[in-house]
Structures are given as structure tokens and as C-alpha cells.
Give the backbone structure.
Amino acid sequence: MMFKDFISLVQSLNNRYKIILFCENENLYLKIFNDKIKRFKENNINVQIITFKSNISDQFKIKDTSYINFDNYDFLKVFFKLVKNKIIISSTPTINKKISNNTNYFIFVQHTRLKFSNKFTRDHINIFDKITVSSQDQETECNHLLKIDK
């Protein structure tokens, strides 16, 4: 497994893609990222998909898209430390600037209508460059409770 992740790391760092989508699992791929990937392709924007312990490539027959799965969290963190000058879109609060370097731009894609006020999300949400919301309540919460500017 570790050798496979090492090879994945080398392959992923050789990419020329400006946009990286971190997809946590199969459900989120279907719920969020599948449509976004289609829109990127329609606009001739190539993206790279990164997953963790979730081989969506076999399941969804991803074609014409760079796809890499890591099974070891340490290799995933090394990837985010080494990759530079990318836009990284994630629906996972812990995949943020804290595990990366200062050259990447992180966008958090909210995938539920739940509030951000749970401690786990609240502790990580401020470490993104941009946050999307799914409801007016979330926007209000970001503006007032979390002190995040529009």
C-alpha cells in the first residue's frame, strides 16, 4: 500500500492542472463533484480529482480526468504540502490551508443545509480562502456567528 501511495504522490505532483477537487467519498462525488466535473469539462477546464481511501474511478468510470487515490493519510498530507499554486476545492473541513502551503487557494463547498456551528466545522472553516453556503441561514451564521466577511 505505501509503495502504491508513493507512486500516486509522484504522479499527482507531476500534474499540470490548476484545479484540484478533493472528494472525500463516493456519496459526495455523486452529490457535489460529478456535476462540477461535467461543467469544467464543458468549459475545457481540466481538473485533478484526489480521494482518500475511496476508489471512485472503478465505480464511476471516470474518463479523461486525472484521478488519484491515497490510502495513507501521511502521503495525502505530503501531497497538499508539496503541491503549489493550485485552486483546491474541498467539502471536507480538515482539507484546508493548515495542511498545505501558502501558495494554494482553498475553497470549501458546503454540501448540507446544516449549521456551521458544530465545533468540528467551526474550528476548521476559518482556514479556507473562500466558503460556499447552501442556505441563507448558513450565510447569516458565517457573517455573524463566525465573523466571516461576505
In short: Residues 36 and 42 are 10 Å apart (CA to CA). The mean pLDDT is 81. The helical segments are 2-13, 26-42, 56-60, 73-82, 119-125, 136-144. DSSP finds six helices and six strands in the chain.
